[in-house]
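Section 5.1 Outputs to date
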Amino acid sequence: MSAPGKYRATVYHAGPRNPSPTPAVNTAPSVPSALPTRAALLMAASATLFGVMAIAIRYASRQQHPFEIGFFRCFFGALFALPLLRVHGLEILRTRRLGFYLVRCGVGIVSMMCGFWALVHLPLAQAVALSYSTPLFITIGAVLVLGEVVRMRRWSAVIAGFIGVLVIVRPTATDFSSATLVALLAAAISGMVTISIKYLSRTDPPDRIVLLTTLLWVPLSLPPALAVWKWPTLEVWPWLVLSGALGTGGHYCWTRALKMAEASALAPLSYLQFIVVGFLAWALFGELIDGYTLFGAAIVISASLYIARREAQVARQQLAEPVVAKGEPQV
């Protein structure tokens, strides 16, 4: 799965107070146009890890229910995230927004379970392609929840993206699967999770968000797993452990990459997951990407990339606007 939506908070700083009578202009450095190599490699690694995790989920689903797989992904993912405690100490667990974390993680569990259900019941490439509609839902959510202003260009991209979703889903087709609706629900809820991360990132560092999220996911994912519980057999344990390791590794690489570079610059690399999943699904399960899924995915990805680029342009324009220092006359 694709990983959840790829945004990070940007903080604009006014330049130092200008002693002259002229307005103080923001002197913050412009956003670099070159993509750091390390950030690119981390995002490519994240996309690859999430892609291989989808394969591990499919193998595990031969014996386990998606809800159980979700729990074990969270359980083993938390174990692999514990080294962050060694690095930062118990201080990393302290936050004033625990209630918000609980709500965010609860919503995230619903998105994860829906996403895993889609990966099990849909062709893998189709499930991943539908997950790329998350930025479309994020744009709508940003308007409704954050009060962001979205102009005609981005609304046009959102409409085009949903047309791509319809091409993938083909609601009038005879082989239409209700699992596609579950995949879209996962994408929509994932958009809510991404918006919540924008709030948390204003006060909490990335490692705290990763660690607290993975730890809280464990108890929250247990009830749905218990409802369908069946102890895994010996041969399925490696796939469950692998799903946790790959999920946490992908989440960590994704967080680190976003700390080093713009989300809009990294977005094209995140779609490497579609290529990885498409190839492995063909090589291991004989699943071919049909023309509708390929064409619809191209539309959705193009629309999502445009939205990311457009948001970056708006951010640069705001960064370049003159900022008048407090107490100085506006000329």
